[in-house]
UniProtKB/TrEMBL annotation, chain A:
<feature type="region of interest" description="Disordered">
    <location>
        <begin position="472"/>
        <end position="585"/>
    </location>
</feature>
<dbReference type="GO" id="GO:0005096">
    <property type="term" value="F:GTPase activator activity"/>
</dbReference>
<keyword id="KW-0343">GTPase activation</keyword>
<feature type="compositionally biased region" description="Low complexity">
    <location>
        <begin position="484"/>
        <end position="494"/>
    </location>
</feature>
<dbReference type="InterPro" id="IPR053793">
    <property type="entry name" value="PB1-like"/>
</dbReference>
<feature type="region of interest" description="Disordered">
    <location>
        <begin position="149"/>
        <end position="173"/>
    </location>
</feature>
<feature type="compositionally biased region" description="Polar residues">
    <location>
        <begin position="542"/>
        <end position="562"/>
    </location>
</feature>
<feature type="domain" description="PB1">
    <location>
        <begin position="12"/>
        <end position="100"/>
    </location>
</feature>
<dbReference type="GO" id="GO:0005776">
    <property type="term" value="C:autophagosome"/>
</dbReference>
TrEMBL record, chain B:
<keyword id="KW-0342">GTP-binding</keyword>
<dbReference type="GO" id="GO:0003924">
    <property type="term" value="F:GTPase activity"/>
</dbReference>
<keyword id="KW-0449">Lipoprotein</keyword>
<dbReference type="InterPro" id="IPR050209">
    <property type="entry name" value="Rab_GTPases_membrane_traffic"/>
</dbReference>
<keyword id="KW-0931">ER-Golgi transport</keyword>
<dbReference type="InterPro" id="IPR027417">
    <property type="entry name" value="P-loop_NTPase"/>
</dbReference>
<keyword id="KW-0813">Transport</keyword>
<dbReference type="GO" id="GO:0001669">
    <property type="term" value="C:acrosomal vesicle"/>
</dbReference>
<dbReference type="InterPro" id="IPR005225">
    <property type="entry name" value="Small_GTP-bd"/>
</dbReference>
Amino acid sequence: MEGIVFPEEREVIRIKVKKCEGLMQPEYRKFAVDPQITSYEVLRHTLRRAFHLQSDFTISYLSHDSEGQEVWLSLLSDWDLDAAFISSSHPYLRLRVDARPFEDGPMPNNMKVKLKRRFSLMPKSKPSIVEFTGHKALDDWDIISSKDTPEPVPHPVVPNAPNNRQKPSTQPLRRSLFSSVQTTLTRMTQVLSFNDTKEEEDEKPMKPALSDTEFHSFLDEAGRLIRPEDLRLRIYHGGVDPALRKVVWRHLLNVYPAGMGGKERMDYMKRKANEYLKLKAKFLAQDTEEAQFVKNMVKKDVLRTDRTLDFFAVPDEHPNITALSNILTTFALTHPDVSYCQGMSDFASPLLVTMRDEAQAYVCFCALMNRIKPNFMLDGEAMTHKFQHLTELMHCVAPEFTEYLYKQQAEDLFFCYRWMLLELKREFAYYDALRMLEVMWSSLPPSPPQKDLELIDNVAIMANLSIPRYPYNEADRRQKGRRSSSSSNQSISPKSREHRVPNRKSRRRTSSNSDKEDGNHNSMVDGRGSRLPSKDAEPKPTNRTTQQITHGGSSSTHNNGKSALVPNGPKAAIPNGELPSPARSPMVFKKQLNGLSMSSLPPPDKFGYGNPFMLFLCLTILLQHQDIIMREQMDYNDIAMHFDKHVRKHNVNKVLNKARTLFAEYLKAQLQKSASSNGSGPNQC
Amino acid sequence: MSYAYLFKYIIIGDTGVGKSCLLLQFTDKRFQPVHDLTIGVEFGARMITIDGKQIKLQIWDTAGQESFRSITRSYYRGAAGALLVYDITRRDTFNHLTTWLEDARQHSNSNMVIMLIGNKSDLESRREVKKEEGEAFAREHGLIFMETSAKTAANVEEAFINTAKEIYEKIQEGVFDINNEANGIKIGPQHSPSNPALGGGGGAGGSQPGGGCC
C-alpha cells in the first residue's frame, strides 16, 4: 500500500466469514459492517460473538497478489482492516477465522474433544450482533449498529466515584456547564471533583481508555449518540482507545449535527467528503496571486510539520505531505478572513494522521477551526485573554512563583505562547499529544453544528472578492495595512463580521452572553498598573473584532508601539521602552491580584476564552517546573530556554492528572460562588 | 557561568529564510534540515569571547509570519542587536527588508546594531539576489552585512560575533547606556555597575566589522 489511501466512502462492507477450528466442520457467517465505525477490535468482537468463540483466534482476509493469485493475508490491526476494506471487499470481504484454543498454531487438528467440552460451557446467548443468517440473501443483511453490540456495559464513567454521585442519569451535565454556570457547576463539580485526592498521585495512570464496546453503550439502537455529555466525561478521565479515535473524534470535534444515526452519519460524511473534493478542485485550481501566496506559504510549512513522525517522515512529494498541504490550502482559500496562519498545520496534522483520509480530516479541521479560529485572528484578542487569564490563575494558585516571575520580568508568560496558541500540542510527544487533545476536547461542552458543518465561509469570500488580502506578499500586505490602516481592513470586515458573529455564537455557546458586557472589557486591562480582575471582563469575539483587526494589522502606526497582542496588557510597557522597574506598577498589580481566589476567577464559559481546561494544563506545567526555576534562579531567557528544551517531553499522565485536580478545585470554587451569590458573582477585588 | 556582559539579540526576517537554522548552527554547531516551524519566539544562548571578555549572547528567534508580529514586536525593545535575515534564493524575502527594517527601527531602541544577513549562500545555483545588492542595501541603511550558510556554517560565527563586536564598541564609546536594561545589555556579576565599559580600554573587538560597515 503506497502512501495514504483515500477510499471512496462506502456505507456498508459485506463480509463472508469462514471459521476453521481443528477438525471441526467449518462454519460460515455473513454480515455487513459500517466501515466507518468498525475498528479491528469491533470486528474481533463481532466475530467472537458470531461464532461463540471463547478461545483466541486469528483473522485473515482473502486478497490477491500482484499476479492475481488469491492469497490469505493476516488481519492484525486497524491498518490491515483498512487495507482489507479498501482492496478486497468487492463484492464482499472474505474473512477466515482460525480458532486457536492452544498456542500451537492456527489449525490444530487434534483438539476435538477438548473443544467440544469448551463448547458445552458456552452461554446460550442468542446471536445479537447482526442477523447471522448464514443463508439469507445479501439484501437481508443488517448493518452492525449499537444495539448489536454486546452486553450492556456497566456505566463506565468515573468508576472510582461513589455510586450515587455520578449516575449516568446526569445527562446534560457537560452541555450546560458553560451555558448555565450555576446549575451545571453543581453537577460538574460533583463529577469532576469527586476524586481529587486520588488524582493527587501524579504517577497514577489514567483510567483505561474508552473502548469500542463501551463507546457503543453511548449509542442507541439507531446509532445515535444519546449521552454526549457522559461520553465526554468518560473521555475526560481516560481518553479514547487509539483504534477508536477515528470515529470518536468526529463526535468530540463537533462534526455531526445532533441526533444523527449511524447511517445518517455515514451519509453525512460521504456528502461532506464530496463537498470537500469539489471545493478543493475549484480552489486549488485558482491561480491568483493570493492563491499562490497561500500555496507557497503552506508548502513551506507542511515541510516543517511533524516530519519526525513516521507518517510525515517521507519524501517531500509524498501523498501524506500533499494531503496536509491540500487541507490547509483549501481551508485558507475558502476562509479568507483567517486564511492561513502558522500553527494551523500543527492542528491539522493529528487529524490527518488519525483520520487517514484527507477529506475527512478536512471536515474535522473545519469543525476544530470553528472553535480555535480566534487564536489565529490578527486582532490577537483571544490570545490576549488567554494570557490575562493564565496570569490570574498563577496569582491565585502560585503567588510565590508569580512573584518570582515578576522579579525576573517574566510575568508576561510569553514563553507560554506556543502552548496556548497550539493548545499544547507540541509540548507532548506526538501520541501523548493526541491523548491530551482528546481529553481537553472532552472537557468542552458538546457544540454540534446547527445543520451542516460549513466547509467554506461564503460570506467572507464574497467580502474579499475585490480586496485581495495578500496583494503581493506578506510585507506588502503589512505595509498596505499600515498606510491605509483602518480602511483596508475594514473593507474586509464589516459585512462578514456581522454575519459571522451570530453564526459563531450559535456554534459557540460559550460566547452567548458576551455582547452585553462589551463595555466592560477595558475595566480588566487598564494599563499595567491598574489591571483588575473582573468578572465582567471576558472574551467577546464580536463587536470589537473589526476594530481590533485593524489594530493588529497596522499596529506599527501606533507610535507608542503597543503590542496588538497585549493592547494594554502586562507587556505593553516593554514596547514602550519602559521595562518595569521593581518600584513600578507590578507591585500595585500584585497587590490587587494577591489573595485572588479560585472563585474570583472568570467563570468557566469565559475563562481561557472558552477553553478553561487548557489554562490548567499550562498552569500544571508551570508548577511542575516551579522548583527548578526558582532554585536555579533562572531569568527570563533561562526559563524560556528551559521550556523550549521540554518541547514534546512533558509527561502526559502527570500533567493531565494534576490539571484535572486543579480544574476540579476551580469548578468547585466557582460552584460555591454561584451558589452563594446566586449567580451574581461578587468580585473579591 | 559568569560573564562580563550579556547582549540580547533578536533574529527577524521572512518565514523560511533560515532564522532558526542560523540560531541552531550558532548555539549547537549543527544543521537540522527538518525542524519545527517556529511559533512565536524561541530562545537560544551562547557564550563568546571578545577582547578577552566573556560575553553571553541571549538570542530571541522570532517567527516570520505576519500573524506573530504582535508578539515578536514586543521583543524588539529589549534587544541590543538584531540579525535581519533574507534568503538569497528568494527575491521576495529581499524585497521585504525595508518593511522589516522600518518595523525594527520603530520598535527598538535607536542604538540597536543591525546585521543584515543573506542566508543560504551554499545554494549558489539558485541565487536570486546578488551579493552586491545586499551590500548596497546595508550601506544605504547603515547596517553590517554578511552572507552566510546555516547549512555549511559559513560565516555564521562571524555574523553573531561581529554584531557583538559592534555592540561592544558602542559600549566603549559610551553610546549605550548600559545601566538601562531596556537597551538589551546587562553587566555581568563580575562587573561593578558603577564602573562600566572600562573593559579593555582598547576596543579591539570592534575593529573588524566583517563586511561593510556603518
